[in-house]
Design goal:
Layout (H helix, E strand, L loop, with lengths): L7 E11 L6 E12 L4 E5 L6 H9 L6 E6 L2 E2 L7 E4 L11 H5 L1 H5 L4 H14 L15 H14 L4 E5 L7 H18 L2 E5 L3 H7 L2 E5 L6 E6 L9 H4 L3 H21 L1
Helix pairs in contact: 4-5, 5-6, 7-9
The structure holds adenosine-5'-diphosphate.
Length: 264
């Protein structure tokens, strides 16, 4: 197979759910082609149920394809691995562990000693603005802080690719905007390859180098829109009124709306 320039190449992907009791089959993704480039921030948008989370599961290795392939660095993905870190909407923090221990958890699984774990955890807690919460427990934190901790935990594991599945869907609008800005600041420190799934067009255009719009389910890529907005301009206070941002948001919105009509 020739070497590709993609970090992850998804070719003709088909993903299917089979009901354990009835045996009924549901095709969630079909004929999906997508290249995720090294060090890019790629957002995936599309109507609810179009297969965005399923796409994350395929790349994370949680689910096997029914057809087609998902290849990372020219090697097929056959299961979960530490090279891919996933951030979910519902934080997935362990309630009986402190935030610092939650952030260091992946390192513990890798056999890293406690002093080194704490050192790495503290670095990422600092980066995500959580240094003062290191000794707190998840229930003592706001939703926004818990999501910062989930991002810190993923980054502490030093993945090559970060997969984010609607991570900010559960927080209020103001916190969400702050988290988006903070995520970009943290991402720019590492520039690891990021795939961010959301149904919010504004969020996608704010964050992404490119936005892939999926068709209604079974999802495939309808169109990819480049977002040539300089990184240093990505702050809500200035971007909200920026004509380029508005134009790109309208373009992506139009694509998604058109798809919604096609589905009706
Ligand atoms: P999205 O993230 O875009 O909202 P999903 O990937 O969650 O979409 O789901 C894609 C399709 O697969 C939807 O029609 C959904 O109902 C279906 N689906 C998701 N999970 C399951 C499951 N565990 N069993 C059966 N169908 C599922």
């Amino acid at each position: 197979m020739p070497a590709t320039t993609a970090k992850i190449r998804i070719s003709d992907l088909a993903m299917e759910y089979v009901n354990g009791e009835s045996g009924e089959r549901h095709l969630a993704v079909a004929g999906l082609d997508l290249d995720i480039l090294p060090n890019e921030f790629l957002c995936v948008v599309g109507p609810s149920g179009c297969g965005k989370s399923t796409l994350i599961s395929a790349i994370a290795g949680f689910m096997k394809p029914k057809g087609g392939s998902v290849v990372m660095d020219d090697r097929p993905i056959t299961g979960p691995g530490a090279d891919r870190g996933v951030v979910f909407q519902e934080y997935a923090l362990l309630p009986w562990k402190t935030i610092r221990d939650n952030v260091g958890l992946g390192l513990k699984f890798k056999g890293v000693g406690s002093a080194e774990r704490d050192r790495v955890a503290d670095r990422f807690l600092h980066l995500t603005g959580l240094a003062a919460a290191a000794h707190k427990y998840p229930h003592e934190l706001s939703g926004g802080m818990k999501q910062r901790a989930a991002v810190a935990r993923t980054l502490a594991n030093a993945p090559e690719v970060m997969l984010l599945d609607e991570p900010f869907a559960a927080v209020d609008a103001q916190t969400r905007m702050t988290l988006q800005e903070e995520l970009l600041r943290v991402w720019e420190e590492s520039r690891l390859t990021a795939l961010f799934v959301t149904h919010s067009v504004e969020e996608a255009v704010f964050l992404a180098d490119r936005v892939a719009v999926l068709t209604p389910g079974p999802g495939r890529v309808k169109e990819i829109v480049d977002i040539p907005i300089a990184r240093e301009r990505r702050q809500w206070a200035s971007l909200d009124a920026d004509p380029l941002f508005s134009r790109l948001r309208d373009r992506v919105m139009h694509l998604v709306r058109g798809l919604d009509r096609a589905a009706a």
